[in-house]
């Protein structure tokens, strides 16, 4: 197990700096240690303040570690000022660790300046002591005193210049480019070698410059997928500390990048599952933990089948209600039906907000679009209820106790931080409602004399195939979420579903009690 020391600043929100380093080291099989160079006051929305402790105390931290513990690799991040940089340089010259990865933290993704301009000269003197330098494009430009690269070919050229200037390997990262690929010129660079033979494509390539690696090529380009996410806080910290950890184990920069890059892509892809902060959230360092531990979730459809079996008693209770029987045969008093519609309109308004929250934290674009469309449909149905029924019938429009309890339950699920719990809580309004509705519609058709049925128009809406299709999709997404979840989260999902199913029973029975 590589023993990896991270020398960097602290991020109290846990997404970047030392906190991200230690997570990355652990996620990639290393033992992490930390010497803190700076304290920050920051969150997912930005950096508010930076405090740099005395450089002598940093030296004391570094000496305490190296006097006692063997160090296989070092990752260097935020350094703050020239005195701190000088302290790190003096320690490196004395200890000479086998692997040194330097992430020249100067400008955060948010645009916040993290290194004093007066310290840039000291940082330049530190660069040759690193085995790998991992700047973002803004930092690469600052180190060269050049404009920020706008195209992949420009970024590669800047990486080569920095490698020549420092005599060390540079990792050029394409993450901040709008697009990168052959059209941007890298395929015409005789020194660039894409070992997959496909070019960088239009995704998110990275390049190791001055590797002396495969076939003696100066530049090795590793293609990658561009992940559409707003949660990328600490990506640079995570990448550099993971590179240090894996390099200490495999001893080859290209092999290291090819192992680290898929892990980081997965961390970005699954980042929204964390639901941390309202700004640029952190990546999910341990997204692969379930796979590494060999844990298996339920088979496809198994969790949904268990939910359906658990709701059987609630469905039976709904079918036995006087309200439902009267709705089916047309004997339901109109004042009870009007109360039900008024409460339904209020409920749909709250339910739409819950579905909008599901859209905001859904892990895939398809799920985001589905829940967003469902939220919009709720508002459209609510408007139609007011326009076609409630506007012509006198009824109390105040919030009923059952409606309030049901909506409060859903809102609590929406702030639980779990996408799985949220969609499980929302599912009965799709599933039970669809099953009850289709049953009532069949009974209505079998009963004949539709013109004499006062609720004929309402019952016909239950035959809507679009709603049936949406219900099937909601079931499938909930089942998939359960497959991604831990056992404890699946238990919470099942509980949320059962509670909502019970509220569905109470909601259908409320007109008898309160109308």
Could you tell me the number of beta strands? Answer: 10
Unreliable stretches covering 5 or more consecutive residues: 180-202, 291-295
Oligomer classification:
single chain
What is the radius of gyration? 29 Å
* Sheet with most strands: 10 strands, mixed
> How do the strands of the widest beta sheet line up side by side?
3-2-1-4-5-6-7-9-10-8
Number of continuous helical runs: 19
Can you give the helix content as a percent range? Answer: 40-55%
Q: What overall form do the CA principal axes indicate?
A: elongated
Secondary structural class = alpha/beta
Succession of helices and strands: EHEEHEHEHEHHEEEEHHHHHHHHHHHHH
Strand content: 5-15%
Average of pLDDT:
84
Distance between the termini: 68 Å
Write the layout of secondary structure elements.
Elements: E1 3-10, H1 17-27, E2 31-43, E3 46-51, H2 55-66, E4 73-76, H3 82-95, E5 100-102, H4 120-126, E6 132-133, H5 137-144, H6 152-166, E7 169-173, E8 192-194, E9 206-209, E10 219-222, H7 235-250, H8 253-269, H9 289-292, H10 302-310, H11 312-319, H12 322-329, H13 334-361, H14 365-388, H15 401-414, H16 419-447, H17 456-460, H18 465-484, H19 487-514
Helix pairs in contact: 1-7, 2-3, 3-4, 5-6, 7-8, 11-19, 12-16, 13-14, 13-15, 13-16, 13-19, 15-16, 15-19, 16-18, 16-19
